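RETRY 2/3 - previous attempt timed out on the joint model. Re-submitting the same 328-residue input unchanged.
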Amino acid sequence: MAEKKVTKIGVLTSGGDAPGMNAAIRAVVRTGLYYGLEMFGVMRGYSGMIEDDIVPMNSRSVANIIQRGGTILKTARSAEFFELEGRKKAYENLKKRGIDGLVIIGGDGSFKGAQKFANEFDIPCIGLPGTIDKDIAGSDFTIGFDTAVNTAVEAIDKIRDTADAHDRLFIVEVMGRDAGYIALHSGIATGAENILIPETKTDIEAIIASLTEKEKRKKLVNLVVVAEGDKFGGGNEIGAILKNRLPNADIRVCILGHIQRGGSPSCLDRLIASRMGFASVECLLQGTHNVMVGIMNNKLHYTPLDNAVKAKQKISDDWLRIVKILAS
Ligand code: ATP
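RETRY 2/3 succeeded.
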């Protein structure tokens, strides 16, 4: 049977917000309009689908947003969408408008929801990886990661200035949930002495030994970057242990927190969001359904939603060796 042609596309942002989501929405809407499709914005992720909060979008709806952080469609987590009943309501709301294709910009949780929805109902779904955590396989970058990591780098550089002025040891906690990419990239880029990430076992005794040795040779300015999801503990836990074990060191803890989510997206995030958004509409039109659009080795890469939800990116041993060697 020939593939049914998609004529009306809904776009939504779901899960945690990430800078660059607006650039992706803009690309989806403008590409759809270019191909003569009707475009709709679904407000507050899957909640808006269930509550029928869906608005028509034209070219002007996405004017002047490419440089803005957050998401004009708002984002949310929807408990109701976990239930078949909730997903049925969502389907009926799309159906009555004739929406026959969906683009979901979000993280792996959002893709799990999309995968279920696409399997249960006849609406193809395309996922775009929008998360600062970069914890999705099938793409070298996720929308928002580059901005978040640059925000972290800028903040850590400032912290190093004050650490340097006072000869302090700073423990900086960055975001990333159970992924260590923001910590790894920002830690390497700021010359952190130690980087603690959930992907590797934190050897606190080795860290204490190396800081003690540095103390002996009067290297008193040190930065420890810790991912919020490190299994050993976050910034406060590591700080308490180090304060206890290194009584002569002047130790401060800084939790960077939500500033990493906000702000104007970097050039890279705007570019990948535009490219992925454009590709998502082409996928729907060409019948490449229920995939996540990623970019691998600077080429568009399509991963079935099934695999995108199951796999996580791995951190290569090379990176971990680089950290060790450069932080001496
Ligand atoms: P981030 O990585 O930024 O947190 P995310 O997309 O992983 O983003 P989640 O909160 O995990 O964020 O998921 C977003 C929404 O997707 C959930 O609130 C829920 O509505 C839907 N969802 C997640 N997992 C499932 C699932 N297994 N079945 C149905 N819906 C799901």
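Residues 14-16, 46, 77-78, 81-82, 106-110, 112-113, 116, 131, 133 surround adenosine-5'-triphosphate (CB under 6 Å). Closing ticket.
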